[in-house]
Structures are given as structure tokens and as C-alpha cells.
Amino acid sequence: MKSGSAKVGIIGLGRWARVLTRAASKSPKIEIVAGYSRSEEKRQAFEQEMGIPSVPDAQALLSNPDIKGVILTVPNEQHLPVAEMVAKAGKQVYTEKPIANTLESALEIEALESRHGIQVMVGHSARLLKGTRLMKEAIDNDELGAIVFMEANFSNERALEITPDTWRWYKDKAPGGPLSQLAIHQFDSLHYLGGAITEVSSIASKLSPVGAEVDDQSMTLLRYADGKIAYVGASWTSPGIYSIRVFGQKGLMHYELDFSAWDTPDRLHETSLLYIQRGKDGYGKREVL
Fold first, then answer.
1. Residues 274, 275, 276, 280: what is their CA dihedral angle, to the nearest 10 degrees?
2. What is the residue range of 252's domain?
3. H helix and E strand count, the chain
4. 226 occurs within a structural domain
5. CATH value at residue 86
6. What is the pTM of this model?
7. What are the backbone angles phi and psi of residue 186, rounded to the nearest 5°?
8. What would the pLDDT profile of 235-252 be if each residue is shown by its tens digit?
9. Taken in order 24, 106, 38, 88, is the CA torsion positive or negative?
10. Exposure winner among 36, 99, 252, 261, fewest CB in 10 A?
11. pLDDT at residue 163 above 80?
């Protein structure tokens, strides 16, 4: 037991639940004390790997007075009903991104805060990456001058591997494919870096040979309130990459990391690259940070 830490539960015990549980074990501020999944097999596997007890039903977790909040790592279309159940129990809600699979459900989740007096947080964790925060510092300190253009890409090969028995196969459960599952991180990061966005347009395509319902290629253009523009791309049929590039009138910054390290956040720095390039002759004077 961690002294003084906030005790939370976790609902949904798949791959990402284990990533978050390992990360939480290294924090003195939070302690995951119970997990729940409808699958007995997943409950047993979680207990064995994480050393944290699971419960046979969600109500056993929600009725525990020591648990102050619940992490949701369930499929997108389940975010609203599970968040509603958690909020009604008076627990704080942390849901993985995207907040929901439809705008209507997202607004209903937002309304849970005022209806039940709890807080809802969405897991837009990518804006917390060190490279992104250093970019924000450089922008705020005017190291790059006026920002005029940004581009970002988050891709992996998931659409080459999905099958009809997985929720990501279906349009209503993973709308936009990589747009809602990957590019959502980059939309949040570019909003964090660039401010208010006033216009959005997007196109998509389906090129995976497996025959899934969802699109697997996504390209989106953004216009900001101050006039700068940006592009966000996501391919679901390509080796993984996560990258952001910010262009200013005095310099540019580039940040990328290897997607294969995504599940081990404490090791992301081992495969990441961040550099700043200043002035018109700066190509040969890139400073790796």
C-alpha cells in the first residue's frame, strides 16, 4: 500500500490497462487497487501479471468506499455507459481517448460532471511527452518566431492485423479508423501547441487487404484562429511512427519517436529524436536536444 496515494479501480483489462497499471505502480500519487473485466480469463491474467486483485462484477468495485476514481480502458462505444455507471457511484472518471465514439455520447459524458458532481478526464497523454512540452516552451519563449505551419503523423500497422472479432474492425465502434484511434493524439497535441482551431477538413481511404469496415488512411487539414495552418496524417497500414514538426519564421523543431516503444513510456526517450533548426542556413546547424 502507498501511503497518502489516491486509490482507484480500473475497468477493462486488456493491453492498455496493463500499460497504465505498470505506469501507476511507479507513481506515489495513485494506486490501482482493483480491476474488472467481463472476461474471467482477462481477470485472471491481470491478477497474475500485475499482482492486483480483480472483482467478479463492476458493482463490487464501485461499492468500495476506498476507491475514489475509476480508469476506463474499454472499447470506445462502451465509454458512455461505463462512465455513467462510475459517475452515478460518485467516483471520478478517467477515460481513455477518444472520449466517445460519437459527438452525442461525448457531450453526455461531459454532462456527467455537473449531474453527479464528479470530474471527467480524457487520456490525452501525448501532450505530456517531453518533446512536445519542450516544443511548447520554445514557442512560448519565441525561439521559433511566429508559428506559421505545423504537421503531425501517428501511424502503425493495426489495420493489417485486425479481424472481425475485434471492435476496431467496425465503423460504428472505431469511426475514422486511425483518425479516432491515433490521430486524436495529434489533434490534441497541435491544439496544445497552436491554440484555437477554427476550421477542419478531412479525407479518408480504405486500402487494407483484410476487408475491415473502417477506413485505414486519414488526412486532416486545420486552420487556426491566428491564420496558421496544420496537417495531421495517420496510416493504419504502415510501420509505426509518431512525429510532430513546427515551423516558425525564425526556426523549426522536429520531434519523433519509435512507435514500438509506445507500451513502455519510461523508455520512449531511448528511441526519440528532437532537434531545433534556426535560420535560413540552419540545415547544417541542427541542434539535437
1. -140
2. 126-288
3. 8, 13
4. yes
5. 3.40.50.720
6. 0.90
7. -75, -35
8. 999 988 999 999 999 999
9. positive
10. 261
11. yes
